[in-house]
Amino acid sequence: MGTEGRLVERPRPRDVVRRAVALKFSRDRLDIKGVSVQPHMTKDVQHVRLEATLGDVARLLADHTISCAVVMDGDRPVGVLSERDVVRMCAADPTGWSSRPVREMVARALVVVEPQTSVDDAIAECRRHGIRRLPVVSDTGALRGIVTQTDLLRAADARLREYARDLERIVGERTAQLQDSERRRNDLVDLTVHDIKNWVHTASSALEVLELEPDSVQAMIPIIRHSTRSITTLVTTLLDVNRLEGGWMPLRLNDVPWSAICAPLIEDASAMAHAKDLKIVASGEMRVIVRCDQQLVERVLLNLLDNAVSAAPRATTIDLYTEVGADGRLVARVGNRGPVIPPALLPNIFKKHEQGADQVRGWGLGLTFCRLAVEHHGGAIRAMSPYVDGEGAAFEFTLPREPVARHPATPLGRPTLPPSTVAALAPAS
Questions:
Q1: Which of 155, 176, 208 is the last residue of a domain?
Q2: Counting runs of H as helices and runs of E as strands, what totals does the chain give?
Q3: Positive or negative, the Cα torsion across 29, 32, 37, 42?
């Protein structure tokens, strides 16, 4: 079929279809239980009395050019006779068939349905009893119409065609999303390789200077250390993102003073801030006790502080504000007076494959790590821009009073790298 041909040509079709079906077509939506037989039945039903003969039935079918008639006992339907029944009796008794009483032809119990019966259930009744026609009766047993197997299948086909159109649309949308995600992933890889090459080149240049000028060791060591540390940090972040996505990073929870987390990080960030004449101001409830994985939360806060310092204009202020909500949830916010983040980028700024865009490159893969680490605690993180006076940006995250580890999955429901591969690629500590 054309639709199948198109699906085969699209990338990873089984994953696309499985995902679309899982999201949009649960069992209750795939069947036709929501469609009743009432709009598909024939209301103007020809009938004969139980006392009639088979000849009467044949004349009725011929006069009205119909394929069946309902047999009535008073106001109650008791059987259905079709052209096939008439032909069968004519072949069995060529001379006396027309005088045979209808009563002899309706010995078995009649199978009926009500107007609200679903098309799905009506089809099942036809299959169960090996019949092709179902009288439709009210709750009092009065005849309301008749529905044939052809009517039912036509109704089912219309609904399935509707589902097929919806499924094709969803598959198209999902395919476009996958293609866009693949493009962004490639951008991320290109930028990561570019950054690593730059740091390797910087370290190599410093080593070449050392070979030519051994006395410059004190000047070159910080450059080499910064380059190697940057590479290690990037690789570690990439691996930790995969660990968090796959649920392979357990939380090591401890009760930690918030000030014990913030103070050394502010001191570290202040070294870079000093070069730009920036001031880091901590305010709010700094003496609160936080139950968290201290190493993960420190890396989250350090990422946000580093990004804030990098984006801030000279001689401005970096804010680190902390408060505790009524439910005991910690709320921490890091803000600067730098460029405003475009509104279109805010919803996607924490996504792993969004970092390839030029507009968000400066924020780096670290924001993806921040989101995963915070969500791993059961918290949430968001970006706000502008921050104050129509400028700047702030990143705010929350940590619950009692963290519960979450193991978010990748878009296709499975980890991106197996644990053995992640362990093999991890840099030596």
A1: 155
A2: 12, 12
A3: positive
